[in-house]
Amino acid sequence: MRLDERLDQLDRLARGELTLRDLAGLEASELEALAHLGRAAFESGHFDRAARVFAGLERIEPDVPVHVLRRAHAEARDGRASAALDALNRYLDREEHRPKSDLQEALLLRANLLRTADPEAAYHDVQAAQILAEQVRGASR
Amino acid sequence: MKVDKSGPTPVRGEDAPALSVESSKVLSAGAKALSQPEMLVDLDHYLKVLAKNDAKQLPGSLARIKPPKKGGSAAFSKAISDSLVSSLAIMSSIYADGFVTEHEMVSLGKVSRQLGDVLALREDGAFEMLSKPMRQRLEHLLFSPLEGLIKSAKADNHEVLRALEHRDLAAFSERISGPTKFETVNLDAVLSAGEGASLQHSGRYGNGDVLLVARSDGSTVLGVVVGREPEGDLRVEVAAGESLAFRTVDETALRATNPLKIGDYIADFEGKEFWVKASAQGALRGASRDTQTGAVAELDAKAVRALARRLDKATRAARAEGRSTLGFGSGPVPAAKTKSKAESKAGAKTEAALMLRAGGAETPKVQTLERASAQGGLFTNRGPNKKEHGVEYAKYNEDAALLGVVKGPKGDVWVAGAFDQAGGMGKIPGQTGAASRIAAEHLLDVAAQVAKGASPKTALKEAVEKAHADVRALNEQHGVEAITTVASGVVVGSRAFVVNTGDSQVYQYSKNGKLKAMTLAHNLGDEMIRKTGDVNSGLKVANIVTSALGIEGEAPKIDLYEWKLAPGDYLVFVSDGVSDANYYAQLAAHKTKKKWTQSGGDKVAEDLGQLLKKGPSAEAATEAIRDYALSQMKNDLGKPDNTTVVVFQPK
């Protein structure tokens, strides 16, 4: 299948017109293209579409943590706080290494989402993000 | 079609998964649909159209179904239908008894391909030339059931294969990393002409042997002999990523890479004894009596070459003279020198001087090491399993464990450690636990360095730095982000030098179980507690490791400690499979507002002290800690994880 056809499929996936089952055997370059579509959707304000793309990527590449974080951002911006929190918890509970900058981002987003419902937890997340920030600053000095 | 169940080996165990309920239903519906007369008529018609247009031959396996000489296309379509029904029966019978042999796996593959080929008929242009009602009937009666069946069968096959591979992989790992049983090899018997088995089938290599197998890049890998082909070649299992691969190797090639084989004990070679084994890197190594008190030294390369030359020379001479003897196998074997009790003991001691369990290896039970100066116990495995604990963490172990002793001029130098890997390696064939293995190997070298006079702290720090660089190189090579913790140390006399990076832990207890010292865990949860003083503040970030080996652009934070040891003290090295043994308990309490007044980590330290108080040995302590951690996971109190415990106790 030609790349432009695949990209069209990916775009249809993002619009919800195709399911993941229709997209078997995606190559690495196509996955990158899909991630790009997700980011483009997010940046252009199509958060629902971005969330669907990153949800799809999370299923296709469950060992890539950043898809989960991006999904959380998209869900949050689309107003689905509960889905965003689920995604953030999944991201923060993982075993794999994640960049400290991404972890800070996740903690601050979670703090923001929790600030009313659970201010104590939100405060702890902010403190944890601060610790990471200090470590990043310390490492770069 | 008759299913051959008399296959060579009962490779597959009794608990192989049976066919799922869903697949059974689809199988049954498929078989029913395939016997519908309408379907046969339609299929017959379709085959005629196909033959008329003859756009292409019947695909794959269908072409191999020979049409009956009489009866034309109708009989042919019946033959196809019968074949499919028979295929379904094969699948049912294979799965039904929950016991899958190698032959059956081959049959399943063939059936699966055949079903796929039938489905491919739908793709052919001739299908479109049929009338719409006929297409719909074929779709309803043939293609849809088959499609569902293939989907279910694939899922079932995958599950069966995965279960079998993991079980076999565990057995393979155990064989590769388990203790070597040494058997006397009388070189004179090998080299002298005499009666015995033929050169081609000398019987020198047999089932269960661990051998070096040559790879295409010139390196070697450890394999286990699992059988012999009818032509005489040996079937050898080698690790291939997360599973196993079979290699067929002729005996001459094996002899080239195994002039001596692992497990050989040579009573007398140029006045010395040798025990032959392999290094973790897959090179032939051995131990001589000279090195029995230290690390298992590499068998002197000169001696290996000389032995190989002698063996080759004898082989060539035997061939030239048309003799077919090596003195092994079923033929009369000249009396071998039996090891004395003292020799056996010496051999065993040499073998046990260093225990490095890494690269996916697991210890089925606690392994021990004892010297006059101290004793130790070691356990590492994948963690809980569904059968025993009702919960499963992983199908493999990526922790590594280390325990060993090297004799230095000033006495024994002990080394121990627990290493916990996260991420990355699943994508790398043959590299399960590669990062933790690298770290453990570097730390292992520290014992020898310290025995030769190196500063313990410097050697530990440099080992961690080198390991970090090597893990980074591995990550870059494979495009992954594997990281590993290090909780390790060396003991010289009454001083313990401990190094820590990551969230594995080292504890020091008195012989009465009183906690004397422990390392600081590098994870965000513990750092929150240290910053806020609130033991519940870091619960939601406890999984975030803040320092480890292998992180891109980030040097590991290396904490070094020096602790004074008293006789009977315990040094306990654990991965977070143990140190998180109260994590879920604390989390659950937090959710119900019954907050704990001590951290989960401190509670574990306290629990371990209670266990150690009972004594009476490092082995018992290791067993008790292992049982505690797995029990906590079973009871949903501890976080399921790979589980590693190493206990050291000076005398």
The SSE string of chain A, one letter per element, is: HHHHHHH
Low-confidence segments of chain A? none
Tally of DSSP helical segments of chain B? 19
- What is the total tally of β strands of chain B? 21
The average pLDDT of chain A is 83
Distance between the termini of chain A: 49 Å
- What kind of assembly state do the chains in view correspond to? heterodimer
- Shape, per Cα inertia axes of chain A: globular
CATH homologous superfamily assignment of the largest domain in chain A = Tetratricopeptide repeat domain
The major pleated sheet of chain A works out as: none
CATH architecture type of the largest domain in chain A = Alpha Horseshoe
Task: Provide a concise account of the structure shown.
The complex is a heterodimer of chains A (141) and B (651). Chain A is mainly alpha-helical.
